[in-house]
Amino acid sequence: MELTGYLKKHFGFDTFKGNQEEIIKNVLAGRDTFVLMPTGGGKSLCYQLPALIKEGTAIIISPLIALMKNQVDAMRGFSDEDGVAHFLNSSLTKNEIQVVKSDILAGKTKMLYVAPESLTKEENIKFLQQIQVSFYAIDEAHCISEWGHDFRPEYRRIRPIVEEIGKAPIIALTATATPKVQHDIQKNLGMLHADIFKSSFNRPNLYYEVRPKTDATKEIIKILKNNPGKSGIIYCLSRKKVEELAETLQVNGIKALAYHAGMDSNTRSQNQDKFLMEEVEIIVATIAFGMGIDKPDVRLVIHYDIPKSLEGYYQETGRAGRDGGEGRCITFYSYKDIQKLEKFMQGKPVAEQEIGRHLLLETVSYAESALCRRKHLLHYFGEEYTQHNCETCDNCQNPKEQFEGQEYIEMLLQVVVAVKEYFKADHVASILCGTSNYGVKSYKHHHLPEFGIGKEKDLKFWNAVIRQALIAKFLAKDIENYGLLKMTAKGHAFLEHPEPFMMMHDHDYDKAEEELSAPQGGGSADPMLFAMLKDLRKKIAKEKNLPPFVIFQDPSLEDMAIHYPITAEEMQNMTGVGAGKASRYGKEFCELIAIYVNENEIDRPVDLVVKSVVNKSGLKVHIIQSIDRKVALDDIAQSKGIEMNDLLKEIEAIVFSGTKLNIDYYINEVLDEEHQDEIYDYFREEAQSESIDDALKVLGEDEYTEEDIRLMRIKFLCNEGN
Question: Side-chain half-sphere of 233: how many Cα atoms within 13 Å?
């Protein structure tokens, strides 16, 4: 029977996908086979079909217990015989293990899925020595390599165990492997002469975008509200963030659930099923989620935190648009997150730290680059993307301004040659900048004639030049000595005959963050509405015989002039406005805004009004409860390990947003009645603003401390404003 006949008979398909047929023929011919095929390309069929055709039992080594069960269930669905596929792992009882073994010995089982931990057990090795092994399939083979994104030490013991059980051909399969990882896998499995089958890593239907991480939660809510009904996965690095974000999304009317390894397995699988059955649209998860989840219509993959490696990023974004339809991959990036990840690495073995740092640098390089994201990603996996503009990434849709970079490439290549192609990017960049750090001095590279030839530019700039030289193939990174910059034939040719070369400046996300998080005063706020709100505040203050800042502070009015709240609920989400303030003063402001919006036909950005979740574990609740119990403020600060200044800031935030606190018991301990009256009267009669400095100038800095004034301002706002 022809291969397509077997395909039709066992799986019901008429044709193979991509290079599946060539791979299967190779396995059937008994040759070692290495398969590099992105997620969704049909990897599992490459070992399932030959296993059904060949004599004996194929041993399939996989690290994912959930995926094993899914695949065994699927294989049984294709066959009349339940024993055709089994798995052997820690989740089975003794009786279940007995059933598996008797089916294998009876020759019913064509596929045995084994976790690497189970494969190393002496009793299992002895048992498997008795059977005819048709071939070994090693799925998720990148787990072998320390340079991969999911290293598992037990995977490095597979080859000796295979030798012990009995030699048979090997097929190693992975969805993500750089040239370095691929070499590692083949070397460790003793299959350097294997036939290699690579599918393209390009997923043309995916759109890639990196945004500065400013108000990421608000941005995510906006994205989700603009894409109603679409399935999405949001990845966070910590379990705490997963739970916080899932709760915030729920409060804002988005059907979302959390998923992480710390939840009990029942809740976790329930949440996963609800996502698969589309009872919820969004799953907020750590990277534990999605392994072996075959949901074809995930339309959004959002990274709240950037992943630790580009392999991880590629695999996680690869869960979008598997059906060939729309898939938007949006990542929020801040260099602060990279620094956090570097901190987590401290305490690990030095070699592991070094590898982790390299992988992180590749991620930084991808995020900050202004080059086509697709080109960058494919280059990382050793594939060339020749199109000038992919049209489906943020950098191609909004290209950065280009500049002539010929002289910079020349300088860079000169330095790489001068250091005999034996150093990494950061070292080369330091020489170009003229930075005499320890590494440069220890190799006496500060005496090189090339030292400082590019000192008018900074390290960030030179790292960008190196990145663009790598993608243009003037340089290559040495696979064995990961990270050493080597000249290519193209690089040597360029040095001999330099020619124009256009370059682009990198993104500066830290700057973008600063710009976006700067106080959004009149520039972003509607100036006409802001003026009207100030007039209304003045009017109410006059009626109530109070200074205007007691009603609402300026930042609150600015926020109203940006978001146009017209209900009490929306008003509560403005800066410095809590439930108390919203119910006491909000009504007139909401009415004014509603009329203004109506008369000027303003399209309100309601999706940006993010409802926040009450921080149940929070400091604020502890402070309110302690003040109710009349605990001295300095004792509260001490119990929470914070400075008095920070405690007062927290109390001020609570009071400014409308909650009433009574701290008289503490004030009476530190200020006599006369001094209290003087400060109180100042705020009641004279104060033009809530400024502490102004109060000290009027009342006398030799008479009062800043703390005295702040305490009395809190009392005044509680009595008069709340």
Answer: 31
CA angle 704, 708, 712 (to 5 degrees): 125
- The region, left, alpha or beta by phi > 0 then psi within -120 to 50, assigned to residue 290 is left
Residue type, 575: T
- Identity of residue 420: K
Q: How far apart are CA 464 and CA 429, in angstroms?
A: 10
Query: Phi-psi bin for 473: left (phi > 0), alpha (psi -120 to 50), beta?
Result: left
Given this model, what pLDDT does residue 258 score? 94
Which alpha helices (H) appear in 450-504, and where do they start and end?
Answer: 459-471, 489-496
d(CA 31, CA 25): 9
What whole-number distance in Å separates Cα of residue 90 and Cα of residue 329? 36
- Distance separating alpha carbons of residues 551 and 654, to the nearest angstrom: 14
Q: How far apart are CA 234 and CA 228, in angstroms?
A: 15
Secondary structure element (H or E) that encloses residue 29, with its range? none
Distance CA 647, CA 637 (A): 6
Kind and range of the H or E run holding 4:
helix 3-11
413 touches 407 (CB < 8 A): no
Token digits of residue 693: 């400095």
| Residue 455, token pair as written in the block | 């000192």
How far apart (Å, rounded) are the C-alpha atoms in residues 552 and 466?
52
pTM: 0.66
Q: How far is CA 172 from CA 322, 395, 487, in A?
A: 23, 35, 32
Torsion angle of C-alpha atoms 94, 100, 106, 109, degrees rounded to 10? -170
Tell me the HSE value of 216 on the side-chain side, using a 13 A CA sphere. Answer: 22
Residue among 91, 93, 104, 81 nearest 10 (CA):
81
Contact 338, 331 (CB under 8 A): no
189 neighbors 158 (Cβ within 8 angstroms): yes
Residue 662 has pLDDT above 60, yes or no: yes
Closest CA to 416 of 445, 382, 438, 444: 445
Q: For residue 641, is it left (φ>0), alpha (ψ between -120 and 50) or beta?
A: left
Tell whether the model's pLDDT for residue 519 goes beyond 90.
no
Q: Counting runs of H as helices and runs of E as strands, what totals does the chain give?
A: 35, 17
Q: Which of 346, 287, 8 is nearest to 149 (CA)?
A: 287
pLDDT of residue 506: 82
Residue 55 CA to residue 336 CA, distance in Å, equals 56
Strands (E), 139-190: 170-174
Which domains are present in the chain?
A: 3-198 (3.40.50.300), 206-397 (3.40.50.300), 406-500 (1.10.10.10), 519-608 (1.10.150.80), 619-721 (1.10.10.1390)
Q: What torsion do the CA atoms of 679, 685, 689, 692 make, to the nearest 10 degrees?
A: -10
Rg (the chain; Cα; Å): 32
What is the share, in percent, of the chain residues with pLDDT greater than 90? 38
Distance CA 576, CA 572 (A): 8
Residue 678, number of CB atoms within 10 A of its CB: 15
CA 322 to chain centroid: 20
Residue given tokens 């915030």 in the structure block: 248
DSSP letter string over 266-306? HHHHHHHHHHHTTSSSEEEE-TTTTTT---TTEEEEEESS-
DSSP, collapsed to helix, strand or coil, labels residue 455 as coil
Region 224-236 average pLDDT: 92
Tokens describing residue 465: 């030049």
